[in-house]
Amino acid sequence: MIEEIFTASVFASTLRLATPYIFAAVGETFSQKSGVLNLGLEGVMLMGAFAAFYTVYATGSVIIGLLAALIVGALMGLATAFISVTLQAEQGISGIGIYLFGLGMSELLFVRLIGTPVSIDGFPRLYIPGFSDIPVIGEIFFNHNLLVYAAFLLVPIAAFILNRTTFGLMIRAVGQNPEAADAMGVNVARVRYMTVIIAGTLAGLAGASLSIALLNVFQQNLTSGLGFIAVALVYFGRWTPLGVLLGSLLFSFVNALQLQIGSIGVNIPSEFAVMAPYVITIIALVFASKRAEKPTALTKPFRRGD
Amino acid sequence: MPDTLPTQQPHISQLHMRGMVKRFPGVLAVNNVDFSVEAVNGRGEIHALLGENGAGKSTLMKILYGLYRADGGSIHVDESLLTLRSPQDAIGRGIGMIHQHFMLVPSLTVAENIALGMKSTRGALLDLNRVRSRVAELSERYHLRVDPDVPIWQLAVGEQQRVEIVRALYKGAALLILDEPTAVLTPGEVDDFFRVLRQMRDDGHLLVFISHKLHEVLAISDRITVLRDGQRVDTIPTSAASKLVLAQMMVGRPVVLEYDRPPCTPGAEKLRLEKVNALNDRGAKGLSDVSLTVCAGEIVGVAGVSGNGQHELAQTIAGLRPCIGGSITANGQNITNKSPRVLHHCGMAYIPEERMIDGVIKDFSVAENLILHDHARPQYARGGLFMRFRRITAASQQAIRDYEIKTPGTETPIKSLSGGNIQKLILARELGRKPQVLIAAQPTRGVDIGATEYIHQRLLEERAKGTAILLISEDLDEILALSDRVIVMYEGRIIGEMPRENVDIRQLGALMAGAQ
Which residue of B has its CA nearest to A303? Predict the structure, then answer.
């Protein structure tokens, strides 16, 4: 039984399933680190997923499809930034609005432009000579599409940007004490615009990694809650890219395990796997240390002189 | 943005603000004010800006730092016009500001806080090594000890202030604005701080020292400008100033700086704390084995630097913070961990430190705030349920007269009153119940001199009536003016107690800094 469940393919699909989580949650880390809760991630992912899918459907090029997802994600990020930074709307509520917009709009466009379920040729698996053929190791680590590798590469890059660059310092400062950052000559609004656009772009990419790399289909509500899990993963990961990576792997492992258990005939409702991240996150938050990790200005708009 | 290279630091030999005007909705905060700071023969100047809360000092200086945009007037630096759109512009021209609430990011280290908003010599990458070595140079030159690699949240307030100063110097501030910088320091720390300021001045820096403490202004400044109600009263050389003259300029009428305090005749013990322990907001020990007593007709003053347990002490006695060890007795009854309602019945009244949070409900009217305790009592509510508005209004009008509360009416929302008038209202509510024990936490913080004087007189009247008063204050002058006994708190414990007449100010300062 144990050998039937913990197969190499479970670990391989753990890495694959982690991809959208990593893109979305690392992007959300930037946004939250700067003090903006970007709850509409799910809607942006859906828009990105559709944009990528439709472009590939129409042009046949995964590269153009990827670009479309990035552009749509960035534009959704820009809209989010305008609403939460410039208009200073309540972030929890406006995030729900963004989600509902993405959910409805991606479905509408799908029905109007494609109509029937079709599948496309997405990113192919990369064959790495020498590595892909290694038994077990090759199957787990060297048998994926380009976006999987990109996601794992993103984690150290994000950590480097946040911890070692002047931009990262500004992000951390703006999320912890925007008044102080402002007094030191940092343009709080500009930093937040940039992080929220980064979050949107990466959410678009996360959507593309589903629709043109992992599943190669599009349907209504393709992401089914994945974007909300990504928001929770940022809390679980204590606002660090590495923590977010660990969380993503943990939850995609739970997912892969549930699929595997289902495929060998033991039926566990998939809702349990969807619930798991939230349950584990809530437990993690309860037991987490109360140190100054959480950006204190999270969800608080900044206005000079308040 | 300033470069990190010290050779390119800007220099200012004179700065003039002419005819400055700043309006806020419904208020003319700064009204046609002229202000200047000038260096003479390479020696800088310390120019004190004195005034009551709301006189416009901070607003004027926030204009100079680019945080507010002026509605009128012009700023000239060395004869050229200066336009400020943001703090960045001010920093670029060599203007720095140390705010009353420190502008530091608690989770970042000292070096990271200093690097924030500055160009790095390595482009997009942080260059903390360079910051460390420059900080070491500056620390040495001005005797300002700071460790660049400690996160801010681990530093005491005095240390945080040193970080602020080092950062301003690092950024090449030729003119430095200090907004109430001594509020968080002990008397001993103030002396060290003043030494640093004098050295900076002698090095050619221009300093603006915002304060409402007369003796500090007299001790440190070269010139003094007094503001009142947004207007400049006068600018005089410090050599021509005295406490009495300055106080009159600030208030606009003669004031009493010392009170008649008849000798204390303590009666029966009214409040007793025995080995009281409590946690602070971070979950660490905030009070350790605090024991004290207050007798009828006595004012016991609790002195200490901000954040040494005074806040926890007041809240624990008032029943707003759990007491995790020890006991509290008021009026002969054990009130440990009893609800505020029970405490009221024991004859206890509380003037809270955070008056806008614990003292009043901001959006409620004057009348509603006055009956917060007694709203369900028969005199204000028939059957404890139906409010008797005519009586409430009449009682409010009486309180407004008795306590000289300046308000357009009983239905005015409390948040539109000044700090002094809100405090008088709280006083009216608490003293109106004829308490036997009064806990007064920071009763005059942020209150103008006129109202402060009034509140002090009222507290002394209560003392004469035989009320036991525990006065918790970070204002040492207030403690010394009112108390019969002085207790010093440090890191959540009581480390000294002495009768008022035996107080030696230097010894008191040493105790506040933690010396046993």
Answer: B67
